Amino acid sequence: MTTDTDPRRPLAAFDGDVIARVAREMSIEEATLREAIAEHQRGVRSLPGVEDIVYEWRRTLPQEPLIARRTDAYFLVVNPAVWQEFIDALGLSENESDALRTVHDVQLIESVGEDAVPADGREAIVLTRP
C-alpha cells in the first residue's frame, strides 16, 4: 500500500498538516487542494520530467531558482509567469490557484526556513522528485 508520503508519490514533498492548514485558511476543501497539488506534480512529470525541468530552469532563468534539494524534493523560486503557465494548463478557479500557490509557499518556508527565500517577487514551487 502506498501513501502520500511514499517517495515516488506526487504529494511526498508536502506535509499533510501544511495542506490541511492552507485548505482551511483558503476556504477550500482539503481533497480539492490535494488533487490540485497532485495534478500539478503529474503535469511536471509529464513534461520533460522533474529532473529535466529543474535543470532547464537553472540553465535558462535569469536568476538561480534552486533554493534547496532533498532526496524527495526540489525547493525553487520562479517568476510568476512560470506559475501562470501551470495554472492555465490545470484550469483551476482563482481560489484553487491561490491555494495551490500558497501551499507551495508555506511548504517551502516550512522546509527550508524563511531566511532562505529571496524577497524578490519570485514565487515558491516545490517539486516532488520521482
TrEMBL record:
Q: What domain of life is recorded for the organism?
A: Archaea
- Pfam hit, one: DUF8048
Q: Which residues belong to any copy of the DUF8048 domain?
A: 13-128
Q: Which organism is it from?
A: Halogeometricum borinquense
Name this polypeptide is given? DUF8048 domain-containing protein
